[in-house]
Amino acid sequence: MSRIASIKISHHRLPLDPPFKASWDGRPRHHFDATIVRVRDEDGREGVGSGDLMKGFEGHEDLFIGHDPRHLERHYEVLSHINFHYGRCWPLDLALWDLAGKVTGEPVWRMLGGRADRVRLYASSGVLREPAAMAAQAEHYLDDGFVAMKVRFSSSAGGRLSRREDVKALEAIRARVGDRLDLMVDCNQGWRMPWDTTLPWSFKDALTVAKELERLGIYWMEEPLHRSDLEGMRALRQATSVRIAGGEMTRELYEFRELIEKRALDVIQPDVALVGGITGCRRLVYQAREAGMTFTPHSWTNGIGVLANAHLTAGAGDAPFLEYPYDSPEWSEARRDFPLTAPLAHKRGWLELGEAPGLGVVLDEDRLKETQIS
């Protein structure tokens, strides 16, 4: 029987030159951090995960060492308790699934149900650009084979002056590519950076924007209200034909249950690297399906997080698209996936997961040594 022998955590930092200025932050980011979690069994097999910083995990290794890595529900319960008392340590759940796949010789997508071995992607932009530049980026995505694109609206820290400026960017995209791309919009109202004290939109603000998005045929509007305003999101969902999406930074699974029970969203977007891991989020796949909602994860971490979300979506879900963070040159695949030997390679807007056991992660050990900070 396979037993966990060790758990190791390392932190890495990639310098960014030129910097990345995210629409939800406004301050240039001069580096990109990645936390790598490795779980090794007594036979030398290693599972890898990444995502949040694993704060609060140190000292809890003994709760896992000596146990079978395939006892994933048991490990999920322990991690949920650590999550309550300390930090979000869900990258360990990803590493355990990776290791369990290597023990059984199966890819995670098949272990989760085997519905499909690939997912269709939407290109998720992260940079605010002038309308003409946004239209050019949309055309680039089309040429790459993507059929959908997410456009970020500016937060209070962003570079555009008003919601009208945000809408102009959408109008420019529609004028350039017509209906050849499905368009999503991230309104950036669900949460704020720690230093940003600007209030989120009111219901009437969000409804005004929704009417503009209806006119432009937008597929969904994401995070249009503060994450706690379930009644507001439910009312907005009823007031507009645009799908309402959210949940990317929701911390607890019970909060998703409330979102589902209240029918507050059309699309729920948990990220397995940030909440619940694969083990917890697969519960949400079925809950959402029973409620007539779409499950399609947020995945703005690195290539390991993208792979983990893709395996869950392909294996158990039925999403029309999966988020693929990609906004070159500021947010290139090479930057995003620096811990890997090679960036993930989509094929005409599809991510194929293949037959490699586990998640299919291959780390660039030399790069990780160069970038390690702790």
- The fold-level CATH name of the largest domain is TIM Barrel
Provide mean pLDDT, rounded. Answer: 96
Number of strands: 12
Q: How many domains would you count in the coordinates?
A: 2
* CATH classification class of the largest domain: Alpha Beta
Strand residue percentage: 15-25%
How far from one another are the termini? Answer: 33 Å
Low-confidence stretches are none
Query: Outline, from the CA principal axes?
Result: globular
CATH superfamily of the largest domain: Enolase-like C-terminal domain
Q: How large is the radius of gyration?
A: 20 Å
Described by strand count, sense and barrel closure, the largest sheet is: 9 strands, mixed
CATH architecture of the largest domain: Alpha-Beta Barrel
SSE order, one letter for each helix or strand: EEEHHHEHEHEHEHEHEHEHEHEH
Individual helix count = 12
Q: Percentage of helical residues?
A: 25-40%
Classification by helices and strands: alpha/beta
Blueprint of the fold:
Blueprint: E1 4-20, E2 29-41, E3 46-50, H1 72-85, H2 91-104, H3 108-111, E4 118-124, H4 131-144, E5 148-152, H5 163-177, E6 182-186, H6 203-215, E7 220-222, H7 230-239, E8 243-246, H8 253-261, E9 267-268, H9 277-290, E10 294-295, H10 303-316, E11 322-325, H11 333-336, E12 350-352, H12 365-371
Parallel strand pairs: 4-5, 4-11, 5-6, 6-7, 7-8, 8-9, 9-10
Antiparallel strand pairs: 1-2, 2-3, 4-12
Helix pairs in contact: 1-2, 4-5, 6-7, 8-9, 9-10
